[in-house]
Amino acid sequence: MSDTAILATKVLARLQQAGLMLATAESCTGGLIAAAITDLNGASNVLDRGFITYSNEAKTEMLAVREQTLRDHGAVSSQTAAEMAAGALLHSRADIAVSVTGIAGPGGGTAEKPVGLVWFGIAVRDGEPRTVRKQFAGLGRAAVRRDSVMTALGLVLEAAETIANQADVP
After folding, report:
1. pLDDT digits 0-9 by tens, 24-50
2. 70: closest CA among 60, 62, 61?
3. Which CATH entry fits the domain spanning 3-164: 3.90.950.20, 3.40.50.410, 2.40.10.220, 3.30.70.270?
């Protein structure tokens, strides 16, 4: 079993235990986070929906990311990742939403936003979204995407644990 499958299994079990639903908002991962969950039996108990929003238009239309945010900060930014996660919650019945936006490469990077830069957003109901920045350097496109999935799943597991502990769910 791959590291991704092992982590996805832990995420699914914890979400199920706590009675939580997940939504994903994915750009550079193109649905790989949702796929990691749906590869597992029981996915329908925890995954509400996944948004693949590769283009800026998709981000604004499907997730309500503000055009001003995209103009001022770009698609690969903390602000966009936060709005993507918040939008996924707004447009779903999920309790937790994770978002990913980045530059997987091999092209598309700049000095300010190099290849391998990925921003993650994590949002929970009745909370403010938070973001995490990762720089995956010199790994290649497939590895950046794989490591992005692992990071996103880790953020979901952490959020599910926090919610479960606050609700005193074993």
Report:
1. 999 999 999 999 999 999 999 999 999
2. 60
3. 3.90.950.20
